[in-house]
Amino acid sequence: MCLQSQTIPTFAILNSSDIYRIKDEFEIEYHRAGDILLSPGEVSEKLYFIYKGLVVAQNNEERTTWLEMERQVATDIVSFLSRKPSQNYLKVYENDTVLVSITYQKLHQLYSQHHNWALWGTALTQMTMLRMAEFSNKIKIKDASQRYNELLDFYPHLLERVALKEIASCLGINQVSLSRIRAGKGYSYQR
After folding, report:
1. Is residue 118 part of a domain?
2. What residues does 29 pair with on adjacent strands?
3. How far apart are CA 106 and CA 99, in angstroms?
4. DSSP letters along 129-155, please?
5. How many CB atoms within 10 Å of residue 12?
6. Which residues are CB-contacts of 167 (< 8 A; sequence separation ≥ 6)?
7. CB 77 within 8 A of CB 131
8. 107 with 121: CB under 8 angstroms?
9. If we measure between CA atoms, which residue out of 123, 114, 104 comes closest to residue 18?
10. How far apart are CA 144 and CA 149, in angstroms?
11. Range of the structural domain that residue 24 is part of
12. Residue 92's Cα: distance from chain center in Å?
């Protein structure tokens, strides 16, 4: 089984001939920490699936707005689907990151030529929207301490892989507040 097939979710929709197309249509990319996949003002041309590593999205103020790890999708989904310029940076966070990508054009060719791929695209969009809504509900509408705990529930190995400044940024708090939360000093901040 090729790396692409191990990385792309099939949703029990794709048959063996559909899966065979993965190797031809999806590319393997190798990246290092700091590589920029997308900059503000660019239209997101690729959909990335993370085989190994971590990708973060940051706004112009370098505030981390979201992050994704293995077996997840990474792109600016609004830019990718609307074909409008992104407001975010999409950056590789870890060395030796391995991504599997497909361009917007190739993906839509698959959709138009193969019914199962169109169904797969619907399932992928639904999964992505659900994940975004769950993340937003768990992280964005609670106090800082609750958001920290929810973030760790959502990403169990986050502390092992991400600097505390990125975690604080994602939570919308400063590093001092995060340190207090981690020390159990009961910091409570409502957004």
Report:
1. no
2. 99
3. 16
4. HHHHHHHIIIIITS-HHHHHHHHHHHS
5. 8
6. 148, 151, 158, 159, 178
7. no
8. yes
9. 114
10. 9
11. 3-113
12. 11
Flag whether 163 is in a domain: no
CATH at residue 93: 2.60.120.10
For residue 175, tell me if it sits in a domain: no
Q: Is residue 25 a part of any domain in this protein?
A: yes
Residue 8 exposure: Cα atoms within 13 Å on the Cβ side = 28
Q: Which residue has the higher pLDDT, 101 or 137?
A: 101
pLDDT at 46 over 70: yes
pLDDT tens per residue across span 124-141: 999 988 988 887 776 667
Does residue 189 register a pLDDT over 80?
A: no
Give buried/exposed letters for 92-103 (b at 16+ CB in 10 A, else e).
Answer: bbbeebbbbbbe
Q: List the structure tokens of 116.
A: 């199962």
Cα–Cα distance for residue pair 67/151, rounded to 1 Å: 11
Q: What is the largest CA-CA distance in the chain?
A: 57
**Structural domain tally of the chain?**
1
State how far the Cα of 56 lies from the Cα of 63, in Å rounded to an integer. 10
The whole-model pTM stands at 0.83
